[in-house]
Amino acid sequence: MTIFKDQVGVSVTLDTGISLSGATLVRFNVVRPDGTTTTWAATASSDTTLQYTTQEGELSQAGVYLVIAYVEFHETSKTPGDPYVLEVQETDFSIAAYTNNPTGRPIDADCKAHPDEKGIETPCVPGSGQRFSLLQSTSRRKGN
User: Fold this and answer.
1) CA distance 61 to 122
2) Is 142 inside a domain boundary?
3) From 139's CA, which of 26, 33, 62, 112 has a CA 20 to 30 Å away?
4) Residues 33 and 99 both lie in one domain
5) Is the pTM of this model over 0.90?
């Protein structure tokens, strides 16, 4: 499932590998893409799993979040888990990138098909203004 920046209601469920019976504190310790940290108040969703549903503002940065299950059974038993990587995608994109409209995409604004000496149009390398050459193909037919 793709998760986007500012998305609300993302369910994060991690298996701790240990029984949560008798736990006095359960939470997720989170490292945001910019390196800042926060905690999410997880709940036990089964004997060994923790679950949390994201709220508004919690996924405000695109990038990699590290989510670490954390369980305490009493003051002297504090158990962090392995980090889980939660990748959050940017939502600031242009629809032109998905409509195959080269003149609408900045990367290929200078990309135009050019006819070769036989009048056959060949595509260019996006962003470079250069053409692909059909003569540079490395595939060959049997017998050639």
Assistant:
1) 41
2) no
3) 112
4) no
5) no
